[in-house]
Amino acid sequence: MSTLLAVPSAMPGGLDAQMGMHFGHCDIYTLVEIEDGAIKNVTTLENVPHHHGGCMAPVQHLASHGVKALLAGGMGMRPLMGFQQVGVEVFYAGMFPTVGAAVQAFLEGKLQPFSLEFTCGGGHQQAPQN
Questions:
Q1: Burial (Cβ within 10 Å: 0-12, 13-18, ≥19) of residue 60
Q2: CA 44/CA 14 separation, integer angstroms
Q3: Amino acid 50: pLDDT
Q4: For residue 27, what are the contacts with CB-CB under 8 A and spacing of at least 6?
Q5: I need a surface site. Which of 19, 35, 58, 120 has the fewest CB within 10 A?
Q6: Class of residue 62 by CB neighbours under 10 A (exposed 0-12, middle 13-18, buried 19+)
Q7: Are 67 and 6 in contact (CB under 8 A)?
Q8: CA 73 to CA 39: how far, in whole Å?
Q9: Is 128 exposed, middle or buried (0-12, 13-18, 19+ CB in 10 A)?
Q10: pLDDT tens-digit series, residues 20-43
């Protein structure tokens, strides 16, 4: 069974690209198809502007392309809840400089689920900061 993983990335995307540390403001997403614990395929998907649906636009964009998991360094509470509602698992990968390093950590089971402690302020609520 395969899983489609999205990673916010700097241009031009791909495994060697730097991670885009805030999911909704990245240049592009690197999409990684994982099958049987290994990388099967790598493609990219352009981000959508926030003004077309606010911070939920990227959530819907990724979900509509079949993404089942997202590796992110930062996001607000509202999109995190949005991902949970559309069935996309989010993992914290803010300590990895490249997409490939984050994906490798995911494959090795070293990433923890993205929780409220990792959210950044945005919208009308301020999340706790570390």
A1: middle
A2: 7
A3: 62
A4: 9, 10, 11, 13, 20, 47
A5: 35
A6: buried
A7: yes
A8: 21
A9: exposed
A10: 877 777 889 999 999 999 999 999
Q: Do β-strands 89-92 and 28-35 pair in parallel, antiparallel, or remain unpaired?
A: unpaired
First-last CA distance in the chain: 37
Tell me which residue has tokens 């981000």. 47
Report the amino acid identity of residue 65.
Answer: H
The pLDDT value recorded for residue 127 is 34
Could you read off the pLDDT of 109-130 as tens digits, one per residue? 999 998 877 676 543 333 333 3
Calpha distance 75→70 (Å, rounded): 11
In this prediction the pTM is 0.85
Q: Which of 47, 15, 55 is nearest to 29 (CA)?
A: 47
Q: How many Cβ atoms are within 10 Å of 113's Cβ, its own excluded?
A: 9
Contacts of 84 (CB under 8 A, 6+ apart): 90
Q: Which helix (H) or strand (E) holds 101?
A: helix 99-107
